[in-house]
Amino acid sequence: MMTNANETAQIQKILTRNGVRPRQQMTVIAGILELEYVSIQQKFSGKRSWTPEQLKLIAAHFNEPLSVFITNEPANAWNAILKISDVPQRCLIQHSNALETPKFENLVAVREADGWLVIPGTKVEEGQVCYKILKIDVLPNPRVAALDDNPDITDTIATMFAWQGVDVAQFQSIQSMLEAAKSQPFEGYVLDWMLSRLETAESAIVYIREKLQSNAPITILTGELRTTEVNQSEIAKMVERFDVTVLEKPAVLELLAKSFHKQLFRFPSSAS
């Protein structure tokens, strides 16, 4: 783990990245941890250390993996996917040597591409190499923002994404979505292009890419691509400038959810 000074520096980076000004940072952390302000002052000054539980609370509040407080781990890293039900979860594990009798273990790790799968010991196939898990930290689900002026659509998106282990925050206005994104960034966005006859999602996309400096995947949904309601050149500009994808309504939302799952659960290149 990091030293107290490094942990504090990492906390300050997270706060700054989430738009919390330096003068407000200790107050915000005091609220998250439900501690007295003087206690947080002592932690920031190095007189008191951070406990693992406190670091977990801070990471969870800002939707950061616990690995941000572990040296030599990239800030967005997880190295395993927990699969004990139909809904996957990202996690960070430490493992030991290979097991000879995995069926006696509640959970084991098996190698998968660039990372690991965590499965029940009883699910290990004959001859499959698996490893004993020493420690596991289950990370918060990926969060995606869904924007549409029709709440039935965002509700359906949320349902489909939940089956893929992805949480969806639903919004009917650009302003409310961006306010939420400033305080707690999302890992992806599904945006209805035509929010009204006078408003498109263009301003939201520009803000996400340029102001929030986010490279999160963005998918535009539109039902008027072949009509005069939509200026196709405007959408083309978004695709070219900001690397967004376009899906025409009525979209197969189950496929959209699986596409986001594939991106958000892809193992970081350094997973080990």
TrEMBL record:
Pfam families, A to Z: BetR
Domain Response regulatory: 143-264
SUPFAM superfamilies membership: CheY-like (SSF52172)
Domain of life of the source: Bacteria
An example Gene Ontology biological process: phosphorelay signal transduction system
InterPro entries listed in its UniProt record: CheY-like_superfamily, Sig_transdc_resp-reg_receiver, Tscrpt_reg_BetR_N
Entry keywords, A to Z: Phosphoprotein
Modified residues (4-aspartylphosphate): 192
Gene3D superfamilies xref list: 3.40.50.2300
Name of the featured protein: CheY-like chemotaxis protein
Organism of derivation: Glaciimonas immobilis
Taxonomic classification: Bacteria, Pseudomonadati, Pseudomonadota, Betaproteobacteria, Burkholderiales
